[in-house]
Design goal:
With 293 residues, the chain is an alpha/beta fold. It has a single domain, classed as Rossmann fold (3-Layer(aba) Sandwich), CATH 3.40.50. It contains nine helices and seven strands, in the order ααβαβαββαβααβααβ. A seven-stranded mixed sheet has the order 3-2-1-4-5-7-6, with helices on both faces. Helix 1 packs antiparallel against helix 8, helix 2 packs across helix 3 and helix 8 runs antiparallel to helix 9. It is globular, with a radius of gyration of 19 Å. The two termini are 27 Å apart.
């Protein structure tokens, strides 16, 4: 994940402090581990597991997926690549805890320019990181150069926005999460507009992969379904996720919705996320694959 800073005049900010986000990213990835375990098993059907000797996890964050890839491909060295050293510290510590320290290493690099000095790999995994690069087409071309002949790129982009609450939660106007999504979409556009060398692209990932000189193969979406009632760990993650949204959507959501968010975040409020019985975790991620000829 990139650590560029993007500050805009007017409504809110699109600055992302990755150090501050580290616990949220790590816990979120841990909760989504079943989803990504399905995805890595699916990739193992496209690449003979024994033939995969080197994997690059581009935009690795705290290394949850890096370690999962190391487990799924036991003959491979995995390189967790990120621009934020604090996130890579977490990745290194996780690998050590899991007994994978001899096969998972970390590499500090900014995207897209910093990846050019990485050696080739059999599998390049880019999970929810490409949209933090201004020129996505150029970045995909760079990813393709990192693949050995016959190697596979797995690009995680798109899917469905997560859902955590019923449409009508009994507080405020129904449809809170839909309005959060709309405001988040505006924030995302502002974030992308502030990236260096940013280019608008139609998000036809197969076409973009082909334009990068790769052969698109298949894409598939994977579902995470954690129904109500959820554990304390899930509740704590939801609180952290909604708190981050409240911060970045300041001025983009109407005051009534902000007041509802404050109630959801209040641990003492019976309508809050720590107490209400109806919160859940439902999301989907789409993985697009392409092969180097």
């Amino acid at each position: 994940m990139s650590s560029h800073h993007h500050d805009h005049d007017g409504t809110g900010t699109t600055h992302i402090d990755w150090d501050e986000l580290a616990p949220l990213l790590e816990r979120g990835a841990e909760l989504q581990r079943p989803l990504y375990a399905q995805a890595t098993a699916w990739i193992g059907e496209q690449l003979p597991v024994a033939s995969v000797r080197r994997i690059l996890d581009i935009g690795s964050g705290p290394g949850v997926i890096s370690c999962l890839l190391a487990e799924a491909f036991p003959y491979a060295e995995v390189v967790a690549v990120d621009s934020t050293p604090a996130l890579l510290d977490r990745a290194r510590a996780r690998a050590e805890r899991m007994g994978l320290g001899d096969r998972v290493r970390v590499h500090v690099a900014e995207m897209p320019d910093g990846i050019d000095d990485l050696d080739e790999a059999d599998l390049v995994w880019a999970g929810n990181s490409l949209h933090h690069v201004g020129d996505q087409r150029a970045a995909l071309t760079g990813f393709g150069r990192l693949l050995r002949p016959g190697g596979l790129l797995a690009l995680v982009e798109g899917g469905l926005q997560p859902r955590h609450l019923p449409r009508d939660i009994g507080v405020g106007r129904p449809g809170l999460e839909s309005r959060i999504d709309a405001a988040g979409g505006e924030w995302f556009e502002a974030m992308r507009a502030g990236l260096p060398d940013t280019r608008a692209e139609t998000e036809d990932w197969r076409a973009l992969l082909a334009a990068a000189g790769l052969t698109p193969t298949v894409n598939r979406s994977f579902l995470l379904d954690v129904p109500a009632p959820v554990t304390v760990a899930v509740r704590e993650h939801l609180v952290a996720a909604f708190a981050w949204q409240r911060k970045v959507l300041e001025g983009r959501l109407n005051p009534d919705d902000m007041a509802v968010l404050d109630r959801l975040l209040d641990p003492e409020d019976k309508e809050g996320l720590m107490q209400r019985p109806d919160c859940f975790l439902l999301s989907a991620r789409t993985v697009h694959t392409a092969r180097r000829g």
